[in-house]
Design brief:
The protein is an all-beta fold. The protein is about 0% helix and about 50% strand. The strands form three sheets. A five-stranded antiparallel β-sheet has the order 1-9-6-11-4, with no helix packed on it. The protein has a five-stranded antiparallel β-sheet with strand order 8-7-10-5-12, with no helix packed on it. The protein is globular.
């Protein structure tokens, strides 16, 4: 499976002033988006055919749900602030806010700006619910 479970990112540099953490290094991006979600909100329940989407949790707590392929096993992960998940092209994904949450979505591919919906395909049967 090409699915990547969320992982905690560690600071690349730390001193008395604070930390510097690289969210992505050496990855060309088309968009960086900040999304806020109230507790109980479900985002996603879709798939991108040509876009890789990275989700970085800034605050709150979410359940990250994904499925590779139409018949793959649905996987669910608890995400805490400072963790990054990646959805490669073809992986269905959803984010369920378990608390008021804020996260960044970093995308490489045609899912951005006015083309936001061009590579977003809603699932007929959602993989996540509140």
């Amino acid at each position: 499976s090409s699915e990547m479970r969320p992982r905690r990112l560690l600071p690349a540099f730390r001193d008395r002033r604070g930390d510097i953490t690289d969210i992505l290094d050496g990855v060309a991006l088309n968009s960086v988006t900040i999304i806020s979600s109230k507790k109980g909100v479900v985002r996603g329940n879709h798939v991108h055919r040509r876009t890789i989407q990275y989700t970085y949790l800034l605050s709150g707590r979410v359940r990250y749900v994904c499925r590779t392929g139409e018949r793959g096993r649905v996987r669910s992960y608890l995400m805490r602030p400072g963790e990054l998940a990646a959805s490669p092209p073809g992986e269905a994904h959803a984010v369920v806010a378990l608390a008021d949450s804020s996260f960044m979505v970093l995308s490489r591919g045609p899912r951005h700006g006015r083309s936001y919906e061009d590579d977003t395909f809603r699932l007929a049967v959602p993989i996540a619910a509140p």
